[in-house]
Amino acid sequence: MLQTLLILTTCFGPLPGLHRSAQAPWVSTQGPMLVNVPYEQPDARIVLMAHDGRVLEGPMPIVTGEAVDLLSMMPSLATIDEAAYIQLLHGDEPAGAAYVVSPALSRRVPVMERVETPERGEWDRVAGWRDEGADDLEDAPENAGVVDGAALDQPVPRDATVVRSGWWVHPEVDVLMDTDHGSLRFDLREDAAPMTCRNFMHLVQQRFYDGTIAHRILIKGRNGRPFVVQGGDPTGSGSGGPGWWLPLEPSTLGHDFGVLSMARADDPDSAGSQWFIALDRSETARLDGQYCAFAEAVDGKETIISMATTPVGDADYLSSRPINPPRITRAWIEPAPPRDLASGRPDARVTPPTEGPWKPDPATP
Which of 31, 93, 172, 293 has its CA 20 to 30 Å from the CA of residue 224? Predict the structure, then answer.
């Protein structure tokens, strides 16, 4: 039986920094999922919440100095379909970064269809999703595990086809970037795209993005509105990557201003390291379900505006290379802020600008 001890609170009390045990963050379906508050705290409680702050279970008291099994304390963990967040409370006050509990589920595979559009000619797009668990389920109904439609505004509950293998449990972190246009901070939306978030965190921790540029900037998309800032290619050419390919996930995060998503080629599973920041919902809504949005900027609005308005020497839609490309000088991770009992994170996604290229069109109702 895998024993996973997660030290939730060494960063909440007298011991500084984010700590966890040296054991792996993987917890099998056999459990246990152990947590511990290692210092005396008479009013310690824990709560399980969704990303938006909705309480899923608790708050409930936790005895300090003793390891407790979350799977026994919080039975709903056994059936969650999206990542949830365990927050330590001192009374009603949150203390330290939450822990993310992400269920390991069978993959939802994109269902593709061939279409033809005036802008692109013939191409393949995502039409829906199918749970791979249905392949091994005897006498499965014809539409078992099938989700119609590519873009999911809300999570679609899993049915009997899902295979549950366990959970990944780790402290919640944000990704920060220093650029020559300013700084950025991203909330990783593991509830929407857990595998894509883990891929991005891994690349950041390996310092993969340090020194890379934003090689493509489209301040005018097909509708004449700001579209994307794209980077993450170590070669700076638009063709490079980390040497592996990432399966597409059915993210529920829409491509609004400040949302970070993965760029890819025609194959839906061809993403690797290249990312883009969405700039205007009127241009980027069509990307929902076709590309995997996985994070949102909670700080750095002016940095995004500055990067997006960098002059380009080639205005071609497919290249749009800036004359002096914005550069990421450093990217790293930091503990996320504690989650409030009612509202979740104390910060929020940056708001869209209303000036310059983002100024509303008076002809638009």
Answer: 293
Which is nearest to 196 in space by CA: 260, 241, 148, 128? 260
Q: Could you give the CA distance from residue 207 to residue 188 in angstroms, rounded to a whole number? A: 17
- CA-to-CA distance for 117 and 119, rounded, in angstroms? 5
In terms of Cα–Cα distance, which of 219, 224, 221, 214 is closest to 260?
A: 214
Chain-centroid distance, C-alpha 84: 13
pTM above 0.85, yes or no: yes
Angle ∠(335,209,320) on CA atoms, nearest 5: 125
Residue 27 parent element (H or E): strand 26-28
User: Alpha-carbon distance 93 to 33, whole Å?
Assistant: 24
Residue of 111, 104, 292, 291 lying closest to 196 (CA atoms): 292
Torsions phi, psi for 343 (to 5 deg) = -110, -5
Residue 253 CB coordination number (10 Å): 23
Strands (E), 201-274: 216-218, 228-231, 259-262
- Three-state DSSP at 277 gives strand
Only one residue has tokens 């008291």, namely 61
Residues of the chain with pLDDT under 50: 1-22, 365
Residue found by looking up tokens 């809300």 in the block:
154
Amino acid present at 340: D
- Please write the tens of the pLDDT for every residue from 272-313: 999 999 999 999 999 999 999 999 999 999 999 999 999 999
Distant-in-sequence, close-in-space partners of 162: CB < 8 Å, separation ≥ 6: 81, 105, 106, 131, 133, 145
Strand pairing category for 55-61 and 44-49: antiparallel
Domain boundaries, the chain: 4-104, 107-162, 173-358
